[in-house]
Amino acid sequence: MAAPKLYYFDGRGKGAIVRLTLAACGIKFTEELLTEREQIEKWRSDGLLLFSQVPMLEIDGLRLVQTGAIVRYIADKEGLLGSSHEETARINELFEGSRDFMSAFYPAVFVDIKEVLEKASAKSLPRYLPIFDKVLKKNGTGFLVGDSVTLADIGLLEPVLMTIDYYGLEALKDYPSLQEFHKKVTSLPNMAEFLAGPQRRKPNDDVYVSTVKKVIF
Ligand SMILES: N[C@@H](CCC(=O)N[C@@H](CS)C(=O)NCC(=O)O)C(=O)O
Asked: What is the model's pLDDT at position 106?
């Protein structure tokens, strides 16, 4: 079976969590980078994108869209959704919370980055960091649920990495369990290898922002 192929921009955005999930499972993947409007128009007219949107992942003979569906497919197959209905529900709940946290950073493509960071620092960081720190402390294993990595941890990793990229490690100073989480998850061998490699993109730069605008608007 061919390696999965991700169709997305050459940047983080919604594709970042798909890449992190594949990486956590040690699944190698290739990418078709979206750089021109004509490309996405062709993918749409060829029927590759069910809702006309990316990310899209070709995996196991499937063509999947909707970020949540994509990562759940991978997580389900690789055993990252817990070992009971209760654990799965908890993992999904925390994963959705981390996506809400992450949504604080998405407007960076449309709005001035300074404005986005001021708002995230005033509202999202004080709202989400204490909650995740508390859940981690209570679970006591360094992971959010159980004693091994799950989709909940992968979901949280992305906004934690964004927070550190934009505000420095200093932003976690009052959250020792989140500091431990960050160290633990980024040191998992598959994750460490991925994060040090070229498929982990840098935070949005002008080239990424102008490409997204050119392709989508
Ligand atoms: N609910 C979808 C949203 C995907 C989405 O908004 N993708 C953007 C790029 S990040 C897109 O393709 N926009 C083009 C459009 O909506 O026509 C998901 O989570 O995957």
From this structure: 85
Cβ of 4 closer than 6 Å to ligand 1, yes or no, is no
pLDDT over 80 at 191, yes or no = yes
Percent of the chain's residues with pLDDT above 70: 100
Cβ of 54 less than 6 Å from ligand 1 = yes
Give the Cβ contact number of residue 51 at 10 Å.
9
Fold of 5-78+194-216: Glutaredoxin (3.40.30)
Task: Tell me the CATH number for domain 85-188.
Answer: 1.20.1050.10
The DSSP secondary structure of 95-155, one letter per residue, reads HHHHHHHHTTTGGGGTS-HHHHHHHIIIIIHHHHHHHHHHHHHHH-SSSSSTTS--HHHHH
